[in-house]
Write a structure and sequence with these properties.
Bulb-type_lectin_dom; Bulb-type lectin domain-containing protein; signal; four-stranded antiparallel sheet; 138 residues; Bulb-type_lectin_dom_sf; binds 2-acetamido-2-deoxy-beta-D-glucopyranose; mainly beta; 12 strands; 10% helix
Length: 138
């Protein structure tokens, strides 16, 4: 289900010049979810993309505003939100980047927010990790 939606988003991005992610319904991922190579979360003009060059990039109006600086670390990189709230980029099972927060096992949710901040929340809805980006996605 999620993969289908994400693939449609990628296809639409290739067809239009001004990158809008408005057709993408999905701007969240939960513990256990994976963004595979070339997949994105999207919200209006913001996109959070696991690129084929292994860099995870937050784009606003096609401009990069945040990234993991992990380009060139693999060709099949994927992003997982783990049970302990950590974002992990791995290539063929080898981790190449991890976010700083690691907590107890819980159902964490990562949200690409309207205000351009990407936030991981725990089940009490407390933010535990942030990209600290502040841009309007609309
Ligand atoms: C969004 O995608 C995640 C997996 O990436 C999935 O768990 C969730 O159910 C999806 N939400 C919707 C509304 O499709
Ligand atoms: C966001 O800001 C907080 C507080 O300054 C900091 O601890 C955290 O490392 C920052 N997040 C990133 C991804 O740099």
């Amino acid at each position: 289900m999620a993969s289908t939606t994400i693939s449609i988003c990628v296809a639409i991005l290739l067809l239009i010049s001004a990158p809008s992610y408005s057709s993408c319904s999905n701007s969240t991922m939960s513990s256990g979810d994976t963004l595979f190579t070339s997949e994105s979360l999207g919200l209006r003009y913001c996109g959070f993309t696991m690129q084929s060059d292994c860099n995870l990039v937050l784009y606003v109006y096609g401009r990069s505003v945040w990234d993991t600086n992990s380009y060139g670390r693999g060709e099949r990189c994927q992003l997982e939100l783990t049970r302990n709230g950590q974002l992990v980029i791995s290539n063929d099972g080898v981790s190449v980047w991890k976010s700083s927060f690691q907590g107890e096992d819980d159902n964490y949710v990562l949200k690409l927010q309207e205000d351009g901040n990407v936030v991981i929340f725990n089940s009490n809805e407390n933010g535990v990790w942030f990209t600290n980006t502040s841009v309007s996605c609309s």
